[in-house]
Write a structure and sequence with these properties.
Immunoglobulin-like, 5 domains, nine-stranded mixed sheet, five-stranded parallel sheet
């Protein structure tokens, strides 16, 4: 134990002086009511008062007591019980387990859906840094949400004992096990839908798979169950022929009838792109051919002399090749449009730097370098095929300006420049965003050689075309600048709580939540709309709607800020399916894998009596001693308060006794 004081040590002398002065003044001559006090008692009484006053004065300095404390923590055993519908009724024998050797914590998970991995991750988060000894997981092994629980169990780094619940008997049934699809599609394009069908004990029978959209049947297919344990994945191609949130119903009929609904956001992605060059160049044709492969892009070649006469608002993206040059200055309005700069030997670097577009190149002379591409492994703005990136590193060099490169802080390079065999941090193909406007930079001309070499190496232009398309897609995508922005999922399952979030931004695009925000909700099942008001939550808004009936819903949120009215609308779907009813067959093999992987054991409910002994026999389940330092104010110690009271009481008692 150590005494700490924020004041200099000599302040203690003042405390002693205060005690001495107080006792001297009080006892230098006895008060009238103490005339009978003998002189021999005045010194002891003065000492008592001296100690009391000095101690009280010292406490006014707020001294701290530093102590080193050891805390013993027994191993924590978490009993995690699955209470989802697929394991009902719940076996409560697990809850009766107890042991003085361990700290037993009881937990449960699962309801309308089961995410075993999330339950294990929650345990890892809650007991991080604690003496977590083991987890006992009682479930049937069926999970319909989240990742494979084996990985989550392994990451716990403790034994996970599993209690195998549920029925492993396969009853005759067929179900839609999985659906895989793109949640976003572009208008006019096609998108794939993968449907995985599983059937048990239906050999020789047939089912019918149908896909409908707005009451119209888009696809019909017969499924022949060729085995008692049958599984197949069918790929269906659908047309995105209407913009907005579109719902598709997938139904499997036959021995049983099951339906699933998916929601796809169809975006009208047609964009107009302006390709402007300082002079004719082979790069222009290479870029145009790569962009025109996507039917959503309409590319227009513009001479630089005609560019200033164009209505720039018509274009979603500008591609400037060797511009600005000595005779062409970019109009100010063009800075508000996403742009891809191809910087080459004809680019006027002084005018280019004056744009403050995210990259500046300072050069004292018009010299150039021959540079090849080096993939930046830390690039994180979008995914680019790793093998394609390795092949691009083998493509011919580009001609890039020689000088000092000054990238913006948020510039990220997909490829950096490699000069000969020397790698550098100079950006070669890079991206940045400034005030909501995205820009890309290709520092070097001669990309037409890349397209030719790509064909010679692979027999196609896929690598080059993929690179250009990724650049166009990322750069042309405008960030959301809506003043009122509403966030909701596209699809909810039956029984899930629907929560809608909203954000409102002022003129500086900073979040505010002072105004009231209302929401009108319409359902395809009801003719009348329901009115709601958002709750303020943090810097934004939140609206919990609870559980809703199955169907398609359309919402309109509105508010008024600084005299202007803002509206945001959208759609979502509540799917009439209970995922717990899709699969009833317990997966005890998964539970055994989890137990064996973590060094534990799988038990059946009638073996629960063995669990205490199994845990007690483990050598790795031991109490842990945590050493930590504790600071306590001396004033808060009860013994010190008792001492002061006792000193005053003794002094008062003696004086009372001496004076009769």
């Amino acid at each position: 134990m150590q005494l700490l004081l924020d004041y200099p040590w000599y302040y203690i002398l003042f405390c002693l002086l205060a005690g001495a002065a107080y006792s001297f003044i009080l006892y230098r001559k006895a008060p009238k009511q103490q005339d009978d006090t003998p002189r021999s008692w005045r010194l002891p009484l003065a000492l008592l008062r001296f100690v009391t006053v000095a101690l009280i004065t010292f406490l006014l300095l707020a001294p701290l007591v530093k102590r080193h404390v050891n805390t013993h923590e027994k191993p924590i055993i978490v009993l995690a019980q699955d209470v989802s519908e697929s394991v009902q009724p719940v076996d409560h024998r697990l809850w009766e387990f107890d042991s003085p050797q361990f700290d037993i914590v009881r937990d449960s998970f699962g309801d309308k859906t089961t995410d075993i991995a999330a339950a294990l991750q929650d345990i890892a988060d809650r007991y991080a840094g604690r003496n977590l000894g083991a987890v006992v997981l009682a479930t049937d092994g069926i999970f319909n949400q989240g990742a494979n629980p084996t990985t989550a169990a392994t990451s716990l780094a403790v034994p996970v004992y599993t209690v195998a619940l549920g029925d492993t008997t396969h009853h005759p049934d067929a179900t839609i096990a999985h659906l895989r699809y793109n949640h976003v599609a572009y208008l006019g394009n096609q998108f794939p839908l993968e449907v995985t069908i599983r059937a048990h004990r239906l050999k020789g029978q047939r089912g019918t798979l149908t896909v409908t959209h707005n009451g119209r049947r888009l696809h019909t297919q017969e499924i022949s169950y060729t085995d008692n344990t049958f599984s197949t994945t069918e790929t269906i191609t659908l047309d995105a022929d209407r913009a907005g949130l579109q719902s598709y119903t997938i139904t499997l009929t036959g021995a049983t009838t099951v339906s699933r609904t998916i929601a796809v956001e169809v975006i009208d992605g047609h964009q107009k792109i302006a390709l402007v060059a300082a002079a004719p160049h082979p790069d222009i044709a290479a870029l145009r051919h790569a962009i025109e492969k996507n039917p959503n892009y309409q590319i227009e070649l513009i001479e630089k002399a005609d560019f200033s006469n164009r209505k720039l608002g018509e274009y979603s993206l500008l591609i400037l090749h060797n511009l600005p040059d000595g005779r062409f200055q970019l109009p100010p309005a063009a800075l508000q449009i996403p742009t891809i700069f191809v910087v080459g030997s004809q680019t006027d670097l002084g005018r280019f730097n004056a744009l403050h577009s995210g990259l500046e190149i300072v050069a004292k002379a018009r010299k150039t370098d021959e540079v090849t591409a080096a993939r930046n492994g830390a690039f994180a703005l979008f995914n680019f095929d790793e093998e394609a990136g390795q092949r691009i590193e083998q493509l011919p060099p580009l001609t890039a300006p020689f000088g000092t490169y000054r990238p913006a802080a948020n510039l990220q390079s997909l490829f950096t420049a490699k000069i000969g065999n020397v790698a550098s941090d100079r950006p070669m193909i890079a991206f940045c965003q400034q005030e909501g406007i995205r820009r890309a930079f290709v520092v070097g001309e001669g990309m037409w050689r890349w397209r030719l070499q790509d064909y010679q190496m692979t027999g196609s232009h896929n690598d080059f075309d993929q690179l250009v398309e990724k650049m166009v897609v990322y750069t042309s995508l405008q960030t959301n600048k809506e003043r009122l922005h509403v966030t909701t999922r596209h699809i909810y399952r039956l029984g899930e709580n629907v929560v809608i979030e909203a954000e409102l931004y002022d003129d500086n695009y900073e979040p505010v939540n002072t105004p009231e925000v209302s929401l009108e909700l319409r359902s395809d099942l009801k003719s009348s709309a329901q009115q709601y008001a958002f709750n303020r939550s943090g810097n934004g808004y939140s609206l919990p709607l609870g559980t809703l009936e199955p169907g398609q819903y359309a919402y309109t949120a509105s508010t008024t800020l600084a005299g202007k009215r803002y509206i945001a609308s959208g759609n979502f779907i509540v799917e009439d399916i209970n995922l717990e009813q899709v699969n009833h067959v317990a997966d005890h093999a998964l539970l055994n894998t989890i137990a064996q992987t973590t060094g534990a054991q799988m038990l059946y409910p009638d073996q629960l009596d063995q669990l205490p002994q199994l845990l007690a026999e483990r050598d790795d389940l031991k109490s842990v001693v945590y050493a930590h330092t504790r600071y306590t104010e001396l004033l808060n110690l009860p013994l010190l308060f008792i001492l002061i009271v006792l000193l005053l009481a003794v002094e008062w008692g003696i004086r009372k006794w001496m004076n009769g």
